[in-house]
Each structure stands twice: as C-alpha cells, then as structure tokens.
Amino acid sequence: MQAAVGDRIIIHGNKVGAADRHGVITEVKGHEGEPPYEVKFEDGHESLIFPGGDFTIKHAAQPEG
User: Fold this and answer.
1) What residue numbers bound the domain in which 36 lies?
2) Is position 64 within any domain?
3) What average pLDDT does this structure show over 25-33?
4) Is-above-0.90 flag for pTM?
C-alpha cells in the first residue's frame, strides 16, 4: 500500500466491538509511499505506525463514502 502526506488512514478494530481509529498521515518514512507512517489521530494522539492488514487508506483526492 502506498500513501502520501494528507491521506486519511482508518485502522479497523480487530476485536468484536472495537472501534475503528481514524487519522491523517503527517509524514511518510518509507520508500515511495510505503510504511511506516507518522499519523495524527482524531483524538490528538500522534504515532509512528507500521499498519498491518487491518487498515484502509483514503487518498486526499479520493471522495469520502
């Protein structure tokens, strides 16, 4: 998966009842858009993540929905 600064990331809850986490990619540290990504989450938390198979990227130019 490739991403760019400004893209939204959704990390899906991996347990029954677990909420999804939404954030914005603020820095791409991997080669050519690959992880890891520096992400600022909706709750204000910032983290360096190496997302697994439980995430979706919404590119900045891609409409919501």
Assistant:
1) 8-58
2) no
3) 95
4) no
